[in-house]
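Researcher: Quick test of sequence recovery. Tokens follow.
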């Protein structure tokens, strides 16, 4: 059955990658991109609809006018925003607006939401492999906090949604790939002359390649009955020690409090907003996810491990 797909946040990093992959999908007739930023994609199957996801009436109008059957909701204010109220209104309020618009639509059958591993939080008591039923406890990085709040609001709103609306929440680990991303985590790490880690903490980092993620998103779209929450991560994880060795970069273990202070001062005095002190908790306490549920549901495998995906991305940055 052919698909008419809408992607929110279509001008962002993940939105651009997803739109381009959907345009190549044989079952997709049209892709509608919704974003407040201008679209850079030109394709006969692509339609740009400038819109703010906080406007539920406009979102409902777009869904009806374009006869959308599948929504990928990716729109999100990233990083540590200066305007906390606006970011929360977009991230949390905007997501609920998209859900309400989809729920009231006469054509939408599936809503797929991009969530994040960071919602679990980097906590000392995290299990070695987080499962979907484990609590979301993010309380440091604003990105993770907002991702947690989105899921909490969704949990409250979903019981009143129509039963015919399939809602899929994908908790995705860090995405890496060849597409331009500016100051992404891999670019930031590769740019630094040395790697730093938290003393006496190995940490744990999961990376998924764009190609693997797109394949999974396509399968989620195609699956006729899939609904619920799913972790999206490879079978393994890597560490800062492994990353540094693979890149030939020296690693310096630093006590937690000293590393926190160093990042704090770099951000306040040097303007390095990509090195917020709040990231230290994620270097010390891993949020490593189990992918057993989505592998079973979709019958898929993850051919590329975390270190392999990271190094493939790092290679393109050096090219």
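Model:
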């Amino acid at each position: 059955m052919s698909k008419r797909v809408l992607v929110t946040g279509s001008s962002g990093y993940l939105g651009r990658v997803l739109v381009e992959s959907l345009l190549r999908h044989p079952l997709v007739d049209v892709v509608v991109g919704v974003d407040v930023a201008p679209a850079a994609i030109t394709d006969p199957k692509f339609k740009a609809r400038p819109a703010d996801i906080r406007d539920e009436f406009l979102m409902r109008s777009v869904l009806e006018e374009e006869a959308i059957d599948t929504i990928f909701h990716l729109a999100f204010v990233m990083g540590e925003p200066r305007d906390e109220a606006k970011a929360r209104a977009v991230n949390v309020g905007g997501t609920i607006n998209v859900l309400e618009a989809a729920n009231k639509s006469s054509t939408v059958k599936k809503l797929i939401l991009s969530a994040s591993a960071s919602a679990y939080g980097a906590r000392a008591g995290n299990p070695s492999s987080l499962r979907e039923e484990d609590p979301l406890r993010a309380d440091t990085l604003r990105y993770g906090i907002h991702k947690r709040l989105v899921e909490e609001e969704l949990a409250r709103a979903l019981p009143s949604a129509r039963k015919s609306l399939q809602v899929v929440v994908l908790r995705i680990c860090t995405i890496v790939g060849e597409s331009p991303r500016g100051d992404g985590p891999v670019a930031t790490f590769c740019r630094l002359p040395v790697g730093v880690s938290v003393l006496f903490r190995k940490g744990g980092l999961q990376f998924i390649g764009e190609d693997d993620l797109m394949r999974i998103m396509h399968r989620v779209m195609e699956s006729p009955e899939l609904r619920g929450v799913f972790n999206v991560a490879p079978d393994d994880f890597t560490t800062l020690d492994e990353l540094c060795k693979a890149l030939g970069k020296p690693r310096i273990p630093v006590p937690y409090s000293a590393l926190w202070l160093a990042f704090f001062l770099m951000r306040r005095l040097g303007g390095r907003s990509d090195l917020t002190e709040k990231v230290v908790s994620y270097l010390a306490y891993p949020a490593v996810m189990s992918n057993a549920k989505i592998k079973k549901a979709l019958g898929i495998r993850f051919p590329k491990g975390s270190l392999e995906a990271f190094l493939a991305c790092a290679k393109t940055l050096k090219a």
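The two ends are 41 Å apart (CA to CA).
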